[in-house]
UniProtKB/TrEMBL annotation:
Domain Metalloprotease TldD/E N-terminal span(s) in chain numbering: 22-86
Keyword Hydrolase among record annotations: yes
Protein name: Peptidase U62 modulator of DNA gyrase
Biased composition (Basic and acidic residues): 324-338
Limits of the Metalloprotease TldD/E central domain: 111-220
GO biological processes: proteolysis
Length: 475
C-alpha cells in the first residue's frame, strides 16, 4: 500500500527528535454487515476504512498519532506530531527495511468481495427461517447477523522489519427467543473463522440456527438449577470462555508487569493442576483468532503459557518484551490504525488430555454438566468470576440428567485450574470479540472436557462499580 522508501522517510522523521523505537501501521479494511430481525433484513452495510498509526517509544513512554491520509505528506505530518513527544536529542536515522516472512500461511478460497451481496443475504435469511421453523409457536424472535472483513496491512519499524499481510474473517451469529406463557428463554450460536465465504462449506447456516433455537425451546421446560458447592464437568463444546476470561488476561505481560495479575512474578511456579497445559496458538488454520503476523509485524507462533501446571511464559508485545530484555512472542494486537498495540490473546486453550470425555461423566456421581457458557463478569486483577450457564444438565449417578436453567458458576480462575482432576481428549472452540483498554480483537477460546471437583453453582450475577470488573459478552 505504501512504498518502502516512503516508510523509511516516515520512520526517520518519527525519530528525528529522539526516541528508542518507531513503527508505522498502515491499514486498508473493507467490512460488510447484514442483520435480520422481526422477519426483515434491517441492514446491509459496507464500508472502507483506510489510515495509518505512527508510534514512537521513549523508554516506557509512548507517543501515538494516527491519520486517514496515507499520502506521503499525510504520513510525514503524523510522524512529526508523534516525534514531538520523544525524549533525547535530534538524530539522523538511516533505516534499511527488510521484508519478514511468516512462519505459517493461510489460504482464502472464496473471497468475500467475490461473493454477491444477494448470496450473503440468502445465508442470513436461511438461518432466520430455520430458527423459526424449529417451533413456529414458541420461537417469538430471531436475530441473525452476517459479517465479513478484508483487512490489508503494511507494518514497518525502526529495527528494519517490514511486513505486508492480509486477514479475512467471516462470521454468522444467531440469537433466538422462545416463549411459553410468561416464561421467556434465549438461545445463541455463533461461528466464525479466519477464512472467506467458504465458512459455510464447513458450517451449515440452518444447522447453526436450529442449534440456537432448540436451546431456547428446551430451556422453557428446564428445571431450576440447584444451588451450592458441587462438582462441575465443563464439556469441550462449552469452549474456553473460562480459561480466556478468568485466566488468559492475567497471562498478558502488561498486566503481569503492573502487578495487576495473580500470575505476576510466578514464572517457574505451579499455578494449576499438573493435568492443565494452557497455550495460545495464533497459527491454527481456520480459527477466528488466528493471524500470520501480529499488529507489530512479529510472526505468529505457538506460545505455551502453563506447562503441566507450571507457569512458563506470558503474552508479550514489543514494549513489554523490551522491559524484560527479550523478544516479543507475537501478541501485540490492535483494533485498528487508530489504536496502539497491546498484549492480546489469539487462540487461547487448555490442551487436550488423554481421558475419554464420556468416562469423566461416568465417574462423576452427581454435579452439573455445562455444555454452553453465557455471559458474566470477571475481576481481571484477582481472577474472580461469575459466569452464566447457557446450557446445563444435572449429572446423576454418572449419567446426564435433566436440563436446568438459571445456573451460574462463581469462583476464582486460578484456584479452579489448581483443582481440575480430569481432562478429556476432546477439544471444542468458541469465538468472540475480546475487549481490553477500549479495543476489540477477534479471538477463539477452547478447552477439552474437564472436571472441577467443587465450584459454587447458583446465585445471580449483579453489578459492581469496581473498574476492574469486566462484563463478558460474546459475539
Amino acid at each position: 500500500m505504501v512504498d518502502k522508501q516512503i516508510l523509511k522517510e516516515v520512520l526517520a522523521v518519527a525519530l528525528s527528535n529522539g526516541g528508542d523505537f518507531a513503527d508505522i501501521f498502515v491499514e486498508h479494511k473493507q467490512v460488510t454487515g447484514i442483520g435480520m430481525e422481526a422477519g426483515r433484513i434491517e441492514r446491509v452495510n459496507s464500508g472502507l476504512d483506510v489510515g495509518a498509526g505512527i508510534r514512537v517509544l521513549s523508554g516506557e513512554a509512548t507517543a501515538y498519532a494516527y491519520t486517514n491520509d496515507i499520502s506521503k505528506e499525510g504520513l510525514l505530518e503524523a510522524a512529526r506530531i508523534a516525534s514531538h513527544a520523544a525524549k533525547g536529542g535530534k538524530k539522523d536515522v538511516n533505516i534499511d527495511l527488510t521484508s519478514i516472512k511468516p512462519l505459517v500461511n493461510f489460504e482464502f478460497k472464496k473471497r468475500p468481495e467475490d461473493v454477491k451481496t444477494e448470496e450473503k443475504v440468502a445465508v442470513v435469511k436461511a438461518a432466520e427461517k430455520a430458527a423459526r421453523a424449529a417451533d413456529s409457536q414458541k420461537i417469538k424472535q430471531v436475530i441473525a447477523g452476517y459479517g465479513d472483513s478484508v483487512q490489508k496491512v503494511t507494518i514497518a519499524n525502526s529495527d528494519g522489519a517490514c511486513v505486508e499481510d492480509e486477514r479475512i474473517r467471516t462470521r454468522l451469529v444467531v440469537n433466538a427467543v422462545a416463549a411459553d406463557g410468561d416464561t421467556i428463554q434465549t438461545g445463541y450460536e455463533a461461528v466464525g473463522s479466519l477464512c472467506g465465504f467458504e465458512l459455510f462449506e464447513r458450517y451449515n447456516p440452518e444447522t447453526v440456527a436450529r442449534q440456537a433455537a432448540t436451546r431456547a425451546i428446551n430451556m422453557l421446560t428446564a428445571q431450576p438449577a440447584p444451588a451450592g458447592k458441587m462438582p462441575v464437568v465443563m464439556a469441550g463444546e462449552a469452549g474456553g470462555t473460562m480459561v480466556h476470561e478468568a485466566c488468559g488476561h492475567g497471562l498478558e505481560a502488561d498486566l503481569a508487569q503492573r502487578n495487576l495479575s495473580v500470575y505476576a512474578n510466578k514464572k517457574g511456579q505451579p499455578v494449576a493442576s499438573e493435568l492443565v497445559t494452557v497455550v495460545d496458538d495464533a497459527t491454527l488454520p481456520d480459527k477466528y483468532g488466528s493471524y500470520r503476523f501480529d499488529d507489530e509485524g512479529v510472526p505468529a507462533r505457538k506460545v505455551t503459557l502453563i506447562d503441566k501446571g507450571i507457569l512458563t511464559d506470558y503474552l508479550y508485545d514489543h514494549l513489554t518484551a523490551t522491559k524484560e530484555n527479550r523478544e516479543s512472542n507475537g501478541h501485540g494486537r490492535r483494533e485498528s490504525y487508530q489504536h496502539k498495540p497491546i498484549p492480546r490473546m489469539g487462540n487461547t486453550m487448555i490442551a487436550p488430555g488423554t481421558t475419554d470425555p464420556d468416562k469423566i461423566i461416568r465417574e462423576t456421581k452427581h454435579g452439573l454438566l455445562v455444555k454452553k457458557m453465557g455471559g458474566g463478569q470477571v475481576n481481571t486483577t484477582t481472577g474472580d468470576f461469575v459466569f452464566d450457564v447457557a446450557e446445563g444438565y444435572l449429572i446423576k449417578d454418572g449419567e446426564i440428567g435433566p436440563m436446568v436453567r438459571g445456573a451460574t458458576l462463581t469462583g476464582n480462575g486460578p484456584e479452579v485450574l489448581k483443582i481440575v482432576d480430569m481432562v478429556g481428549s476432546d477439544l471444542g472452540f468458541t469465538i468472540g470479540t475480546c475487549g481490553k483498554d477500549g479495543q476489540g480483537a477477534p479471538v477463539s477460546d477452547a478447552q477439552p472436557t474437564m472436571r472441577i471437583p467443587e465450584i459454587v453453582v447458583g446465585g445471580t450475577a449483579h453489578g459492581d462499580d469496581n473498574p476492574s470488573i469486566k462484563r463478558i459478552r460474546r459475539i
